[in-house]
Every structure is written in C-alpha cells, then in structure tokens.
Amino acid sequence: MEKTVEIDFVSDVVCPWCAVGFGALEQAIKNLDGQVKAQVRFQPFELNTQMPKGGQDIVEHLTQKYGISAEQVQVNQKNIRERAAAVGFEFHPEGRQRTYNTFNAHRLLHWALHEIGPDEQYHLKKELLKTYFTLALSVDDPINLLDAVARANLDVGRAKEILDSDLFGQEVREAEGHYTGLGITSVPSIIFNKKHLLQGGQPVETFEQAILQLAQ
User: How far, in Å, CA of 146 to CA of 9, rounded?
Assistant: First the structure.
C-alpha cells in the first residue's frame, strides 16, 4: 500500500516562483507514481493585497518593490521563464505585462477544495497559473477566472455565484492569517505533513527526496 504525504502548497497565482515550484512538484509526484501518494492542497497567500482593480505594470511594480532597474527586471524575468520551462511550465514568450490582486482567485480555489475536492482544486490552480503566466491574461477579470474554471471542468455557474457574492471571503482571510501567523512571509512555502517546510522554486529532485523521506 502506498504511503501518503500531505502537502500544503502556500502560494499566489501571480507569483512566478510559485509556478516554477508547481511545475517541479508536479514532475516529482509523477516520478514517484506508484511509490508514494501525494495529497496536495493549495493554501492562499496574496502578494498584492492592496492592488487596485486593473493591476499595475509589472516593470513599474518590480522596480518600485525591489529597487532594481528595468533592465534587471527583464533579466530576472527571462531567467524565471527558463526555469519554468525546464519543469514543463511554459510562460508567455513576451512575459507578464501586469500584476494583479488575486483575492477572487483564492476564493475560487477555496471553493474547489472544500466543496469538491483536492484533485479538482489542483486542476483549477494549474489553470489559474496558466491564465496569468501562459496566456498573460488578467486574473482580476471575472471572465478570465471563469474561463479557467471551465478549462478545469468545474461548475462555471457555481463559480459565477461565488464571484458575484462575498462567499468564502472570510475563510480565505482566516487561512491567510493562519499561514502568516506561522511566520510565512514569502512564497512558495511548501509544508509537508503539517511539520516540514521547504521554500522557493526548488528543483524536482529536492521535492522527490523530501517526499520519499517523509513516506519512509
């Protein structure tokens, strides 16, 4: 019988290293198929809690946030795109143009996990990451969020009900508070079996080793 390892993947859908980490974790789980069962749950973290509707130009945002030049932003973006491609997650060739608030995306992810199940949440998380990084679309536009729901084969009507209301808002805020209360200030933060923490866009091999060690 396969051992099960529980994984809480704390992340945001506009975080490039979260997409890299997602791709690496996905590859690791595939490589361990038949040896270990990984139960993944995606937990909310917002990089841009105060971002207004419509977002902000990404170069402007990153130069202001990190105090680096526009040229360095472009170099960093290119490096991250290459890292993502190496783990099977294709970014848009022109890169992302803007960054956005993601609260509504997290409300949908909460719905998928708690009303449907972790596998369905996994598919939705992947499609939301693709919306932003592969298609380079806004993730604060409800139409794009509903398109991601449709691609994940989930109930678009129910998702629209959620977006048109404040459903799961309090639950998302409480979950965010829980993880920041644990000291998590950067993402991705990957927690194994509620106890062991890995942070950052780790290589596939690192995830494999962690999962195998915990399964044993």
Answer: 22
Identify the burial level of 86 via C-beta atoms within 10 angstroms of its C-beta, where 0-12 means exposed, 13-18 middle and 19 or more buried: middle
DSSP string for residues in the chain: --EEEEEEEEE-TT-HHHHHHHHHHHHHHHHTTTTEEEEEEEEE--S-TTPPTT-EEHHHHHHHHH---HHHHHHHHHHHHHHHHHTT-PPPTT---EE---HHHHHHHHHIIIII-HHHHHHHHHHHHIIIIIS---SSSHHHHHHHHHHTT--HHHHHHHHTS-TTHHHHHHHHHHHHHTT--SS-EEEETTTEEEESS--HHHHHHHHHHHH-
Using alpha carbons, select from 11, 6, 3, 7 the residue that is nearest to residue 179: 11
Are 40 and 122 a contacting pair, CB within 8 Å?
A: yes
Residue-wise pLDDT for 27-45, tens only, equals: 999 999 989 999 999 999 9
Q: Is the separation of the CB atoms in 91 and 134 below 8 Å?
A: yes
Residue 83 CA to residue 40 CA, distance in Å, equals 22
Q: For the whole model, what pTM was predicted?
A: 0.97
How far is it, in rounded angstroms, from Cα 22 to Cα 200?
10
